[in-house]
Design a protein that fits this description.
alpha+beta; 23% helix; 3 strands; single chain; Peptide Deformylase
């Protein structure tokens, strides 16, 4: 895994990528799994809760999010999170089954 550079809208070269229409994911490959792992590591390094591929210079429709599984209140008004990492989510493009 690797921490990637997060693009900044103020940078003209970065802005070009950030404004580009992204391509849909067609297959789940080892390279895509590595990208998702890199994005999680980058997101955590930046103390974020979500990151989209264009933010790291990749024009594909993939995003990662971190959803705390539970917030536990402790003394002195400090919250501790028990984290949940979503490794892969697949959503059908034409229909969603419940």
């Amino acid at each position: 895994m690797a921490v990637r550079r997060i693009l900044q809208i103020e940078n003209p070269d970065d802005k070009k990528i950030l404004k580009t229409r992204c391509h849909p994911i067609k297959t789940f490959s080892p390279a895509l799994k590595q990208l998702a792992a890199d994005m999680f590591e980058t997101m955590h390094a930046a103390n974020g809760v979500g990151l989209a591929a264009p933010q790291v210079g990749i024009t594909q429709r993939i995003a990662v999010i971190w959803i705390p599984a539970e917030v536990e209140e402790r003394e002195q008004d400090v919250s501790f999170f028990r984290g949940l990492h979503l490794q892969q989510i697949s959503v059908p493009q034409k229909s969603v089954k419940n």
